[in-house]
Amino acid sequence: MPGLVPLSVLDWNLGVPTARRGIEEAYQVADRIVSELKSKNVSFGEAQRKSEDPLTRARSGRLGVFPASEFSMWPEVLDCLEPLSPGEISTAIATPFGIHVFRRDALPPAETFSAMRLVVGYDGAEFLRHVARSPGIFDKARKRTRTEAKALAEELRARASPENFRDLVAQYSEHRDAANGGDIGVWSSREPSIFPRLLDSILALPLGGLSEPLDSELGFQIFLRTEPSTRTRFALRARRLAFDPDADETEPESSSAILRMAEGALAGWRALLAEGMPAAQLPDLGELETWTLGRGPDGVDEAIQRVSPGQLILAPVRSDYTYLIGLRVEPQAPDEDPAGSEWLPSTKGAMP
Questions:
Q1: Rg of the chain (C-alpha set)
Q2: Domain 4-104 belongs to what architecture?
Q3: Helix/strand/coil for 58
Q4: With contact defined as beta carbons under 8 Å apart, do 8 and 105 qualify?
Q5: I need a labelling partner for 336 at 20 to 30 A (CA). Which of 233, 254, 275, 286 fits?
Q6: Which ranges in the chain are annotated with CATH 3.10.50.40?
């Protein structure tokens, strides 16, 4: 099935602790809900509250926009979606993750948008570990309960305005993108994302509008919708060297050991360039990564802007649990959005 498939989903996930039933009983539950939905005795929103997948339940069943290829490992899902028109409900379908009921939605109107955000973490919002401003900031966030984080986020929201939002981000946001004013880059309303609820919330705001604090895998996020602008496109042949953040500094997989390895690899590339080797032939250059300003690998935007295409980045960049080195190259022309607006691909594919 070609194209993009916007979906909502009901999941009876047999792997979650609350599922104390066999597959036949799960099918019976799902079939009963399908019957109620098709007879319009309940709305999809009412039915999805019974979902046993906590992630999709928290966002009203929304999966967002997905390329059909994302379901290639589950051809049975594609088979049940193929005949559906927007608004129609699938039959119950089994995957290794449980029993699912899908609703196929219409593609949203094509629209580009941008925003800034302020992130307040708490104990349990573990995704922040990967993108915190510093390990110390993450440790501080982990000492805060969810209730305390919500109270702080609500206080900051009450103080926030378009005029002072950047200052509040600089002072309080615990995400590393605070260094860029909390800018999340330019997005498309038709772009695949694993965080559709957050993007939906931004799209619902007027320009200059502020969201209420939204709970997420990072903590509570407050968004200010901003005017999308033309962004510089970057491309990098990147090599990533992963480290273990919990390893002792004496161990070979520690952050400091992997940093030394990355520095050595970068020095080796420079030596080969000095000997006359063409940059494109350097050994162990990684896959091409392309993005627009604000959408790149964490921590890399600033580093890549310091060099020109054909040059190596100056020093290893810590990005998530890796040190990244690479060669800046000329970006290729972007793909086109199915609605005709420019598609803005990202190496992230999702807002972290």
A1: 23
A2: Roll (3.10)
A3: helix
A4: yes
A5: 286
A6: 4-104, 112-226
Residue 264: other Cβ atoms inside 10 A:
11
Please state, in angstroms and rounded to a whole number, the distance separating the CA atoms of residues 344 and 298: 17
Q: At what angle do helices 165-172 and 146-159 cross, to 10 degrees?
A: 150
Q: Tens digits of per-residue pLDDT, 137-158?
A: 999 999 999 999 999 999 999 9
**Could you give the residue ranges of the DSSP H alpha helices within 39-97?**
44-48, 54-58, 75-81
State mean pLDDT over 288-307. 89
In the sheet that holds 214-216, the strands lie side by side as 183-188, 112-120, 219-226, 214-216
Query: How far, in Å, CA of 152 to CA of 49, rounded?
Result: 28
> Strand, coil or helix: what is 190?
coil
- SS3 assignment, position 350: coil
**CATH number for the domain running over 233-329:** 3.10.50
Q: Amino acid identity of 37?
A: L
**CATH architecture group of domain 112-226:** Roll (3.10)
What pLDDT digit, counting tens, does each position of 43-57 carry? Answer: 877 777 777 776 666
pTM over 0.90, yes/no: no
